[in-house]
Structures are given as C-alpha cells and as structure tokens.
Design goal:
Blueprint: E1 6-7, H1 18-24, H2 26-29, H3 40-60, E2 67-70, H4 73-87, E3 94-98, H5 103-114, E4 118-122, H6 132-138, E5 143-147, H7 161-171, E6 174-178, E7 197-201, E8 212-216, H8 231-234, H9 242-257, H10 259-280, E9 284-286, E10 297-302, H11 307-316, E11 319-320, H12 336-340, H13 345-348, E12 351-355, H14 362-380, H15 384-390
Length: 396
C-alpha cells in the first residue's frame, strides 16, 4: 500500500483543524467545569458555550437564542422532525419530504408513520432536483412540516431551498432542511431562505465528531428531544460537551470566513476531475446536477463493474473514496439516491463518490487519474457483458 493516503472522502468526515483543536484543548484539562454550576471554572465553560452559539448564529444569519447544540446531525434531524410532529399533532399529521434524504430523515419519517403520521416522499428528476411546484401541490390542510435537504450527501445536488422555503411560508407550514453537507460549503442565510429549522454537524467542516446543532426559529412549536436537566434552556437535557461545542464554534467561524476562496479551489478540482474521467474512461455517467452541485462533490457510475471492488483497489493504491453515504457503507443494497434518480440496480452498484477538501491538490488528481482508468478496465475485464460490448455487440 502507498505511504501517503490521498483522502477524497470529505463528505464522510473531515479532520479537525489545528486551530480548532487548540481552542478545544483547555476545556478537557483546565477549564473543565460543568457549565450548569456557578463557580469560576464552570462560568468559563458557560461563557465558551455562549461564544460558540454566537459563532454558529452568525454563520447562519440567525439569533444566538435560536441555536441549540446536539450530539450530532442525526440527532438534530430527529429532534426537528419528531419535535415538530408531536408538538403540532393537534393541527395535522402530514409531513412532506423527498426520496433522496439522508437516512436520518427517512428513517425518522418512517418511524413517525408507525406512530400514525402520514408522509409524502416526493420524487426527484434525473439530476436529483425536487420540483418546488410538486412541494406546493403536495401540501394539504393537515400538513405540518416540509423537510428537504439543502444538498445531497451522495450526488451533491443543491436543492432550490429558497423557493421551497417561500412556498412553506406562504402556506403556513414549518420548513426544515438537513444542511449537514451544506454548512461550510455554500452560503446560508436562514431568513432569506425562509428556513424554520436547520440541522448541521461539526465534523463535516473540520470540527470534531459527536457534536451538531439545530437552528429553531423563534416561535416554532416544537417539543424537547431529551428530558432531564435544564441545559440548552430546558430544551435539550444532558451535560454539555463543552470541548466539542467550542470546536464546532471555531470550525464554523473558520469555514464561513474562508468560504469564497475555499469554494474556488474545490470547484476547480471538481471540474477538472469530472472532465478527465469523462475524457479518459468510457461508459461512465455523472450523477447529480452538473452546475447546481456542491463545490467538492464528484459522483460517477461506471458500467460493468461493482463499486466495492473499485474502492478496495483504489485503497490499495493509497486513495480513500466511497461509493455513497458513509452511514450505509455496510449495506449491500444499491444507493436509494441513485435509484431515485433513475439508475438501474446494476449501474447504481458501480458508483464512486469523490469529495475534495482543503488539503487536496492537483497532484492528488494526477495520481487518481494515473490509476483509476486502469482499475476500471481491469475490473471490466471480469464482466461478460463488457466483453460483448468490446466485440461490438451493443445489444447487451
């Protein structure tokens, strides 16, 4: 195996930046007080949480009192959807979402169906985009929540969030967006986008794992998710993970301050990779919208091969990538996202997701393109269908 790992899976997780870790460290060993206590080192912890809350709020265009820290993006999604559903059951029981949401949203909605709620799963087009008019048409008198992800974690497609938010506001329906992949990658303003609830996760933008946040617009009717103590103004019990919260706050500040320059770099690397794969490897399909796409996301399907074998062979060459969501990597089923955009099972199985980050360079792409075409060809040589294509028989 190669000595240097070329890491192309930033959608799964990022490393913790040194500046972030540096701010976190004192809260493990020196400023370790419980923020619910009143003595000095506890007050230091409380102050650190408040500063982190301010940083998150600023990044989203929100008010500090609208930010609530959670243990993950998954928890934030669960809280937003279950919390609104249970708190507004007297008004209705209908929820609208899409077929390509992260499982933190889909499985939560499926659970609520077992609790008597009705859920509409809207389709997407071949680029992974949901039609805002379909959202409008799906709204009924008993609709209480719309949940549409800001950007897809697998294919990178960015949804028309502002349009959907406007429709939700006009209809008096709460609007939640899973922005776990979007925060730190694209500009966000919860007010101009008419967002009522927004989920995020620290480890997607160079912060620590195990911490997230939920933006809840002032006035939104929502139940508490964890019951116990009075933390997070009585809405999310549990002793605060102060070091992680501090890290999230620093990471989101760094990400938003450097967003424009960061995006320019990632878009250039992304577009170069897409161009070279399409030029050098036949029988490939770019998944997701070509323009309305996360800056660092590349997702291709390669005909006549199986994605897991491709990942293993790339790993042997020192390249870390994925076939889709890291949260479903243990599943043998094809991606629900790729099936939703119309790919047949056999092609959906041959997918590769490359997601770029701050440390990636053109040399990384040079190395990728040095090995990827050969790996794809080697795997295709094992396919009888590919042999027929090579012999000129297109009726396979």
């Amino acid at each position: 195996m190669a000595d240097k790992i070329i890491y192309l899976d930033h959608a799964a997780t990022t490393y913790v930046k040194p500046e972030v870790l540096e701010e976190m460290l004192p809260y493990f060993t020196e400023k370790y007080g419980n923020a619910s206590s009143i003595y000095s080192i506890a007050r230091e912890s409380k102050k650190a949480i408040d500063e982190a809350r301010d940083r998150v709020a600023k990044a989203l265009g929100a008010q500090s009192r609208e930010i609530f820290f959670t243990g993950s993006g998954t928890e934030a999604d669960n809280w937003a959807i279950k919390g609104v559903a249970y708190a507004n059951r007297d008004k209705g029981n209908h929820i609208i979402t899409t077929a390509i949401e992260h499982h933190a949203v889909l499985h939560t909605c499926q659970y609520l169906e077992s609790e008597g709620f009705e859920v509409t799963y809207l389709p997407v087009d071949e680029n992974g985009l949901v039609d805002p008019e379909q959202v409008r048409n799906a709204i009924k008198d008993n609709t209480i929540l719309i949940s549409v992800m800001m950007a897809n974690n697998e294919i990178g497609t960015i949804q028309p969030i502002s349009e959907i938010g406007k429709i939700a506001k006009e209809k008096g329906v709460y609007f939640h967006t899973d922005a776990v992949q979007a925060v730190g990658n694209i500009p966000i303003d919860v007010n101009s986008m008419n967002i009522d609830l927004l989920s995020l996760s620290g480890h997607k933008f160079y912060g620590p794992k195990g911490v997230g946040a939920l933006y809840i617009r002032k006035g939104v009717k929502i139940t508490s998710f964890l019951h116990g103590g009075a933390q997070e103004r009585g809405r999310r019990a549990s002793t605060e993970n102060v070091p992680a919260i501090v890290g999230l706050g620093k990471a989101i500040e760094l990400a938003t301050n450097n967003l424009e320059e960061y995006n320019r770099k990632l878009i250039r690397l992304r577009d170069r990779t897409i161009k070279e794969i399409e030029e050098k490897i036949p029988f490939v399909k770019l998944n997701g919208h070509r323009e309305k796409r996360l800056p660092g996301n590349v997702n291709f399907s390669f005909e006549f091969i199986e994605g897991e074998s491709l990942l293993l062979m790339l790993d042997m060459k020192g390249i870390a990538a994925s076939s889709g969501s890291a949260c479903t990597s243990g599943s043998l089923d094809p991606s629900h996202v790729l099936l939703a955009i119309g790919l047949p099972h056999e092609i959906a199985h041959g997918s590769l997701r490359l997601t770029f980050g701050e440390e990636n360079t053109d040399e990384d792409i040079d190395k990728l393109m040095e090995v990827l075409p050969g790996i794809v060809e080697r795997l295709r040589e094992m396919s009888p269908l590919y042999e027929k294509v090579k012999r000129g028989n297109q009726n396979v």
